[in-house]
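Hello forum,

I keep getting stuck at the same step: I have a sequence, I want structure tokens, and every attempt I make locally crashes halfway through. Rather than fight my setup again tonight, could one of you with a working pipeline run this one for me? It's a single chain of 268 residues.
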Amino acid sequence: MELLGAEFFQRALIGGALIAVTAPLMGLFLVLRRLAMIGDALSHVSIAGVALGFLAGIYPIAAGLLFAVVASIGIEKLRRTYRTYAELSLAIIMAGGIALASILFTTGKGFNLNVNAYLFGSIYTLDVADLWVIAAITLVVLGAILSHRKELFLLAFDEDGAAVRGLPVRYFNLLISILTALVITAAIKIVGALLVSALLTIPAAISLALSRSFRQSVILVVAAGEFAVLAGLWIAGIWNLAPGGTVVLLLICMLMLALAARSRLPRW
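Reply #2:
Ran it on my machine without issues. Output:
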């Protein structure tokens, strides 16, 4: 109970609870659109922005956010260029992000370039400014999803059909990419850039294994994300473990249980 009274742990719980709503929710749309690996691509670009932020003396998350948004626009443009080989856009952006980050790390030798917190997550170091940024991103993402839920549903399952119906597919594809960039930038300090993709995809895998409808998928994906993040933080705090890694391993255990339960349930 002493842990719950600590301010750093309270901030961690608040930040984790917020990102556990948006990251799995965005991940569900990405998985349905066969873009599960976009998290890895944008997280590597975000780290390059974070490194530049440290070097330039500006707020690292702001720099990472700018880089991620620009990269998301680049991914969407490349996807339209290579429509038959859309996964090329992710590989190209990821390679560029890693290359730029490596150059910035080399340039930053001799400076106080502490990016480990963003690579592996450091949720216990969240400050009030970080919480405000995460809260603002959460409101923006949830507002966009709720206001365009019908269009995003149609786009996730039938992009060609959405285009035939006159839906501005290019606009909504770009919107999803930018929202994903926002979520990833908010999440990298919680679970780390190397693990952020797991927070996007594994809750989606859990919900898709158990749900019978899209509405059930949305409810289950948020529930799985919230349980994994909050329980993972609690376990990590008690046993002095790495929070990000604990959350991801807990998600994998939950996925294994979900798949085992699916095999015992009646066929859909």
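The chain has one domain: 2-262. If your local run keeps crashing, start a new thread with the error log.
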